[in-house]
Amino acid sequence: MSATLDVSGVSVHFGGVTAVDDAHVSADAGSVTGLIGPNGAGKTTLFNVITGVQPASTGTVTLSGNDVSRLPTYKRARLGMARTFQRLELFWTLSVLDNVMVAAEQAGDPSPADTARTVLERVGVAHLADEQAGSLPTGSARLVEVARALACEPKVLLLDEPASGLDEAETRQLGVLLRGLAAEGLAVLLVEHDMSLVMEICDTVSVLDLGRIIASGPPAEVRAHPLVIEAYLGAA
Ligand SMILES: Nc1ncnc2c1ncn2[C@@H]1O[C@H](COP(=O)(O)OP(=O)(O)O)[C@@H](O)[C@H]1O
Ligand SMILES: [Mg+2]
Prior knowledge:
Blueprint: E1 5-14, E2 17-27, E3 31-36, H1 43-51, E4 58-63, E5 66-67, H2 73-78, E6 81-83, H3 96-106, H4 112-123, H5 138-150, E7 156-160, H6 168-183, E8 187-191, H7 195-201, E9 204-209, E10 212-217, H8 219-223, H9 226-235
Parallel strand pairs: 3-8, 3-9, 6-7, 7-8
Antiparallel strand pairs: 1-2, 1-4, 4-5, 9-10
Helix pairs in contact: 3-4, 3-5, 4-5
The structure holds adenosine-5'-diphosphate and magnesium ion (MG).
């Protein structure tokens, strides 16, 4: 059976720069897949290709066995893809509740307010519902983005550095949340620099370096891979 999300042979060129080079990655229902790599490795660009924000030069993206490579972002979202952004993209002048309600409404939810409150509760930020998004510290805003993504009831959740700006307790809480979502059958694809979080919650980790996947497997195996050690030391 194919994975919920399958990315195959994706390359992206920006002028003379190859940002992603023949990358393959998949995310299975019921698991958390890590995507790690040094800054500039191509992780965000790959997320942009998966979600239809960035056209790929080559390669395919399939969602539940359907080729979505040529679909616009909103259609991929309707088919079950949701993401958060490394550079946060909330509606800053709206309340937290409205940010999440808009997403539920766009997904065709008949009771968006109820859904918004439920996901805010789930993510642990229900107490911020009436705050203006622009007034939040980065960590809280990141969690609101996770809630907004969940309001669309996705099959695949793509998170671009969700723990950046979170304190230790919030990071631990995020880890518990992501494991819980996987246990409910979601496919979670996690780009993250916090290695202890990645090692703790991922079932599989793929490592991107200079646009190429250089290793893929269980976290402990990947961490000990010579190419991975070299990529990280080389970037230090
Ligand atoms: N819109 C763009 N135009 C030109 N180059 C880009 C663009 N976006 C990303 N890049 C380049 O592509 C490479 C990968 O960047 P990115 O995907 O942001 O990496 P990561 O998320 O792993 O840090 C980098 O060399 C970056 O400078
Ligand atoms: Mg990035």
